[in-house]
Structure formats: structure tokens, C-alpha cells
Amino acid sequence: MKNIIIFILVMTAASEPSFAQLVWFGKKMTVEKAEKRWGGEGFDASRFKNGGLTERSKMASSLLRNKNRWIGRPIEDIRKELGNHDGYYFTDTIPAYLITWAEKSNDEIWQIVFLPDGNYLVKDVIIEQNGS
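User: That's the sequence. What structure does it adopt?
Assistant: C-alpha cells below.
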């Protein structure tokens, strides 16, 4: 029985996007909570790509509210439009963009994650607490 469980875990891990869908490392944040915490500025891809964390966090709720804009698109499109990601979610193949950073040891770090399906198309977009 133990060997069967190990086999299933290994096979699942071999398919990174599928495994990433099963594993939620951190807490997720709703659109409403993000808007209350950081504001609700409209999303602008150029400002997001070239802006700092403060700029990104202000647009986080808008990006999540309009996540259908991203769903179904290839992961490569996300990187082209938003630049190289600076966050981390399970593997480097999953784009995660930081929107806050920890100034003190007990501060929270939040990021926007573009979760892929098995074909590396965006399946969902979440705001996730990094490292919790």
C-alpha cells in the first residue's frame, strides 16, 4: 500500500501543473479583501510590468476581478505581457508576481499567481500568501 501511495505522488509530481492544482501552499485572498487592503485601481499591464510592489498591489483586486481576461491563455503570454515573474509558487514554470514584501519578520508576503492547467494554459488566477 505504501508503494502505491508513493507511486501516485511521484506520477502526480511529474505533471507539475496538475500537482500545483492540488497543493495550496498559502492562504488565498478574495477580491473584496484585496480591494479593502490595497485599493481598487484599474489594471494596466504596462504599469504592472514596470511598477513596483505598491503599484502592483493597488491593481491586484482589479486583476483578480477580471481574471477571465487571462484564463485560457498560454503561460508564455502572461510573461510577455507582465514581464518576468518575481514570486514563487511550487515551481519556476508558474508565474507568480509579488505585490507585497516583508519589511519585518512577521510581515506577510502576498503574490498574484497564474495557475496553469495540464497544457500550460492559465486555469485560474489567485492572490496567495507566499511562504505561509
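The CA atoms of residues 48 and 56 lie 5 Å apart.
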